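Late entry, written up from scratch paper. The run itself happened at the end of the previous shift, but nothing got recorded in the book at the time, so transcribing now.
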Amino acid sequence: MLWCVQRPCRPRNAWAARLAPLSQRKGRTVSQQLVTRAKIILLCAEGKATSEVAAEVGVTPTTVSKWRKRFSQLGVAGLGDLTRPKTSRKLSDEKVEEIIRTTIETTPPGQTHWSTRQMAKKAGVCQSSVSRIWRAFGLKPHRVETFRLSTDDFFIEKVRDVVGLYMSPPDNALVLCVDEKSQIQALERGQPVLPMLMGHPKQKTPQYLRHGTTTLFAALNVATGEVIGECHPRHRAIEFRKFLNTINKAVPKDLEVHIVLDNYGTHSAPIIKRWLAKHPRFHFHFTPTYSSWLNQVERWFALLTERALRQGVHCSTRELKQAIMEYLDAHNADPKAFIWHKTADQIIASVARRCQRVLDVFGSV
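Output as recorded:
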């Protein structure tokens, strides 16, 4: 029965000749939806049943019936999408402005920010309208971003110094990123940890018992990714000097040592200055204040926390130190260096854009 897929004034072959090229095109100039519809009409013109056409094209029988009927009534033009009626906006500009101004300038009683339901109730509109307005104007009252700009008077010089070591290290020298991860807690869960099963993640109780803390001193080799580390019970200049002695023993004597570290007080204590005077091959390079992101060992600390500490259970500081050292040994067995991509000029320009954006947005408030 071909009466539903062809017009009386044209033979079947004529319609097939016009639709066949369209059904075979895969370029960007023809919608793939239109190609699928053309295939449906061609298969129907071959006398196949609706269920057979649906199975071959990969659509439902209802879809096949829809486009057969549309084609029988309108021909090739019926295979396109119909124009949708335009609907006028239900909210006036004044109401939209009121919602935006209320969201930015006020807060609900006793709360810090608006929700879509609260704003909808106050403005007398539906929740979906508030959601659309907030999305259109980029308003996200539930989100808060953090930032911290360096107040270092020598920010530019220090950035160029540290990034220069990463991207163009000196010859016959070793660049190490040094820092301390202090107050690592040995935590024992109040109840046994349930192991991971099919369909169930590992489970642990939020209650825990503290069994002391330790401090990890680590030095990341920028070139190879290897890490020198040791744990100490306290975080003082004395412990830092002991770690510098460890580094001194581990690094070949014929290499200069450039150390990138932050502005913590123990790094510039008098005892450390005297140690540096006795070891002239060591050179300290301080990151700007509030710029720990410049120190690559911080990224390694994040991996340590994620892979070895967060899900661990340690009944003593001895077990905690053992877990840290096991991760350190496993890392050094197959080290991978972090690749630094951004130049000092790009970092400085990015910070400048951030400052300018803050001034532009909030300067007139």
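The two ends are 73 Å apart (CA to CA).
(Scratch paper discarded after transcription.)
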